Amino acid sequence: MDINEVDDEDLEFSRSYFLAKELGSSVKKSGHKLSDIDLVSEEELRAAASNLKPKHEKEVKDLLKTYKSLYQKWAFELRCGFGLLMYGFGSKKALIEDFASTTLTEFSVLVINGYLQSVNMKQAIIAVAELFMDQMKSNRKTTGSSAKAQQPFTSKSTDDFLAFLNGSGEHENDNFVCVLVHNIDGPGLRDSESQQHLARLAACSHVRMVASIDHVNAPLCKHSQVSRILVSLH
After folding, report:
1. pLDDT-derived band of residue 223, with 50, 70 and 90 as boundaries?
2. Distance CA 108, CA 90 (A)
3. Which of the given ranges, 19-33, 57-71, 142-156, 219-233, has the highest pLDDT on average?
4. 45, 190, 204, 223 - which has most CB atoms within 10 Å?
5. Which is more confident, 109 or 173?
6. How far is CA 156 from CA 153, 200, 230, in A?
7. Which residues of 126-146 are buried (b: 16+ CB within 10 A; e: fewer)?
8. H/E segment holding residue 180
9. At residue 3, does pLDDT exceed 60?
10. Where does the Origin recognition complex subunit 2 RecA-like domain start and stop, copy by copy (predicted)?
């Protein structure tokens, strides 16, 4: 092969390369933006979603009917000192709240939405303690007891509130606050401090916890604060 021929081929390739670059730089670019996309309004989206027929509607109704037949059994287990943990695919929020509103009407109920990032377990513990204190006062009025309620909190520390909720008393199985925790493994409850507070709260003698767990791998957790919470619920 002639050396001059090779040089001519390389030169032609170089010219083609730079020519392509010049032509490419002259191509017009689109000025469209994502914000220019004509999206449907929220009203149209909701209207379209409302027309979607739910799948397995009959099966879901039958399943909920089966669960509702267990409400009295669940309440009995709570009275015996156990907790309840709901797991599986799909939201358990409506089921848990229906159980509380229809079966736990004689007890104070506090709801903790674990799926919210802004959850504050210290504030939740204070709220549970205040609910239990109000419930004790109400029970004294109902029974006609003349005993004065002593101030249970020597300080405003979390340990003090937990000690009050874990105190001994008569009829402990019938005198408790029910705590509903939606998504106990949610983003707002995954830090070690919140998990520790949850575990201690679930172990209190005057607290019964009904919780849902949604992460697909959550039942596999070991050697963590979450496992302590699950043990407290069984």
Report:
1. very low
2. 27
3. 57-71
4. 204
5. 109
6. 7, 17, 28
7. bbbbebbbebeeeeeeeeeee
8. strand 177-182
9. no
10. 60-221
Q: In terms of C-beta density within 10 A (0-12 exposed, 13-18 middle, 19 or more buried), how is residue 160 classed? A: middle
Query: Is the predicted pLDDT of residue 79 greater than 80, yes or no?
Result: yes
d(CA 113, CA 214): 12
Higher-confidence residue of 190 and 70: namely 70
Structure tokens at 205: 């003698």
Virtual CA dihedral for 47, 53, 56, 59, nearest 10 degrees? Answer: 80
For residue 7, count other CB atoms closer than 10 A to its CB.
10
Quote the CA–CA distance of 5 and 104 in Å, as a whole number: 94
The answer to whether 231 and 200 are in contact (CB under 8 A) is no
Q: What is the dihedral of CA 138, 143, 146, 150, to 10 degrees?
A: -40
pTM of the model: 0.69
CA dihedral 41, 43, 44, 49 (to 10 degrees): 120
Which one is predicted more confidently, 25 or 124? 124
Residue written as tokens 């799909």? 90
Q: In the numeric block, which tokens belong to residue 187?
A: 């983003």
Mean pLDDT of the chain: 80
- Residue 98 one-letter amino acid: D
187 near 195, Cβ under 8 Å? Answer: no
Kindly indicate the confidence band of residue 37, based on its pLDDT and cuts at 50, 70 and 90. confident
User: What is the token pair recorded at 35?
Assistant: 């914000």
Secondary structure (DSSP) of 103-141? H-TTSEEEEEETTSTT--HHHHHHHHHHHHHHHHHHHHH
